[in-house]
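Handout, section 4.2: multi-component inputs.
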Amino acid sequence: MLNINNLKAAINGKPILKGINLVLNAGEVHALMGPNGSGKSTLAAILAGREFAKVLEGTVSYMGKDLLEMPPEERSREGIFLGFQYPTEIPGVSMVNFMKTAVNEHRKHRGLEPLSASDFLRIMREKKELVEIDSKLASRSVNEGYSGGEKKKNEIFQMAMLEPRLAILDETDSGLDIDALRIVANGINKLRQPDRAVLVITHYQRLLDYIIPDVVHVLYDGRIVKSGDRDLALELEEKGYDWIKKEADKSKVYE
Amino acid sequence: MAAEGRKEYNVAVKERLRVWRQIPETEKYQEMEKNQDQILNEVTSGEYKYGFYSDIEIEKIPKGLNENTVRIISEKKGEPGWLLEFRLKAFRHWQTMKMPTWANLTIPEIDYQDIVYYAAPKQSKPAGSNDEIDPELKRTFDRLGIPLEEQNHLAGIVVDAVMDSVSVKTTFRETLAEAGIIFCSFSDAVKDYPDLVRKHMGTVVPYSDNFFAALNSAVFSDGSFCYIPKGVRCPMELSTYFRINAANTGQFERTLIIADEDSYVSYLEGCTAPRRDENQLHAAIVEIITEKNAEVKYSTVQNWYPGDREGRGGIFNFVTKRGLCRGENSKISWTQVETGSAITWKYPSCILRGDNSSGEFYSVAVTNNHQQADTGTKMIHIGKNTRSIIVSKGISAGFSQNSYRGLVKVHRKASGARNFSQCDSLLLGDKCGAHTFPYLEVDNLSAIVEHEATTSKIGEDQIFYCNQRGISTEDAIGLIVNGYAKEIINKLPMEFAVEAQKLLQISLEGSVG
Ligand SMILES: Nc1ncnc2c1ncn2[C@@H]1O[C@H](COP(=O)(O)OP(=O)(O)OP(=O)(O)O)[C@@H](O)[C@H]1O
Ligand SMILES: [Mg+2]
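Output:
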């Protein structure tokens, strides 16, 4: 589904991603871990089409298409969803109106009629219950004045509404209480289907107790320096990143 | 008119409201959704869509302005002597005046001798008569979405249609007359209700008020007149649609609205003009008077041709609008959505003379490309316990300049006066400007005056967040701008809120990216 090949990118001339290789197949859930500042969010942003990071080299194909050629709204309509690490507030735009516009754009892309208001409201109610968000939140402006945890749940709510093919969730588990964590994990598990894939960016093994990843990658200094199964996450939890950093730095010397 | 009739009308209004309130939220929402789609379609269909010109035979007087011009206009209208005197006094006064320069505007030199001061569609029948109106005129207003036949009317709306210097048709005049409501062209009012006109005209905006008011008082050609008798709640929206069609012509109209005790009316004006490379002058006067317990809601959707992307052409919109809350507990509220005109200079104001009277000003002003707007209000508190609210939302894009200018004045005797002002500016891009000029003159210590101001920008991160959910940049801006202006749009009569939303989005087209 997603094939990242030797992706290099820089922000303001400073190299951030230094040759990422990653293959994510339909039906898989991958976890992306790594120390602060290693480039996880930058990778997510590039996949979603944000332009502050400049791609220097490499290719990304998604469903057989050149992803880097597609404008961001097109990527969304083609099924890529990014759960933001820091969701943006949009004052004055109600969540209902926002989601209705988004859902209908997606439908239009697939050649479907816009949803009738009553159908839309019904689906919205169902999904809200799914992620157990306060129904009052939906009548407020997008993310405005939401608590940190509410913002994260709201991302999962939007994901449930848009039913993406590829979800990239950037630290959606950070700042959540125990119940919320379970809700978010359930939301992700619902996406676990043969034709879908998920890339979860996280710092915590805790989330991975709920969603067992097929592969765990460690990103360090712009490179994926180690990949393994869920035991890698457990090992990291126990030992921290130092040993990985050392290994990686050592191999760099021989490069 | 029988009190019975009035009662019936009031019942009709209540019924309309009751029905609207009973519609479940989801259905209202459905209605709005339909509108949204309509909006999107319109938006994708292009720029200024009212820029066409109607090839109608017109009768024009030669360019130029002198006493004789004033006399010719008065004569064409068959006016009584007192009105000609009024015009001449105004003209002589205007000659002593200079164009104001205090606004934050760069106005090119205007050659007042190079303007035609009277142009009328030739085949026009006397306004208000029952004759068929000219089919070409009808087509023009149809294209503008303003049907002049009563059977095709927009639900619950009465229209006075003014093209260039004359009113071409006022719908539902007879129906309203049954309730004792007078709604007709200004020219007809001068003929049919000379006493009412003479008594009130110029009492709120004297001819000497300012340069453009003096000019208007000298050469005004038509406009609307409205009188709501005691105890009547006008059951329909009254509206005037102003259309400039002829080239090299100025439009100078006057509107006079009088709401007698315990009456209510909601009034709306709309305006458009053809796309042309030359600037055209529009200098209007609106006067409103409310007696005890009366309320007037005045809404404007101003969409004069704004000029092209390079700033060529467009209307100069220099307008004096003022309301006098003469009676106690009376209320005037101005709501304006200003998207058009190359230059806008206008300050719809309220003089709160009656005790407990209140004034409101709700405004959204959008400027894009090279448009300039200097707009705001004056709230003059004279009576006791008078209240005023000002909510102004400026949206600037392109190379435009957008200024809010507002005065809150509390007289010595206006104890218990209260004002709240909120002025927000939203910037799209970094080549435009937003400015706020609030003035405060408070001579009574018991007054409570509050002012809040914010400036914000549509952030690249907000746009990206929308993009990531599948919403294009253009639509994202539409969503954000409409969200920002919602508070004001919601004050408009339902039927026009849609139009206004559409306008906001269209006028910001191409402003980002
Ligand atoms: N807009 C920006 N301008 C300049 N530098 C940036 C910008 N965004 C990110 N960076 C830099 O790029 C590097 C990678 O940042 P990124 O946000 O991708 O890290 P991360 O792995 O997501 O970290 P965290 O775990 O803390 O979220 C950091 O050094 C960061 O300072
Ligand atoms: Mg990050």
